[in-house]
């Protein structure tokens, strides 16, 4: 039961931190959201502080995301557009973590650094190994791919519509074509 309560606290904290930010979330609001009696010490039996639950949530989400998408293995047999579509879906899984980072990046640079190490730096290495064509500079191609895909995702999420009316399938197809062109 204790592990289940801890997981429920973390789920609720993730939701509230993503919606309200760290400062806008209280231990009492997390307790209420989980159904724990406020002020009874229930929260503190699992976490010493609000900061500790935030750190635990970030580490849990990073571990979960590594399971969803382990280090990217080169897969030349799978069309690049399909791999890009999977990247967009992966970003949907990461959305609460992205929201927390957007809100807390100035106040908690350690979180930004930790997520960057896992998702960006590690992701670029995997993407660069996955690209066999393009400009002849796989690291730069990977950075373009990452930034373009994250930009597409954030734009569609922020505005609630596909950028320029270009749906995800069309976006991934065109980006794959651009990255795959022979540029002699």
From TrEMBL:
PROSITE patterns named in the record: HTH_TETR_2
Domain HTH tetR-type as annotated: residue spans: 3-65
Domain of life: Bacteria
Xref: Pfam families: TetR_N
GO terms assigned for molecular function: DNA-binding transcription factor activity; transcription cis-regulatory region binding
DNA-binding region(s), residue ranges: 28-47
Annotated keywords: DNA-binding
Alphabetical list of InterPro entries matching this protein: Homeodomain-like_sf, HTH-type_TetR-like_transc_reg, HTH_TetR
Name of the protein in question: HTH tetR-type domain-containing protein
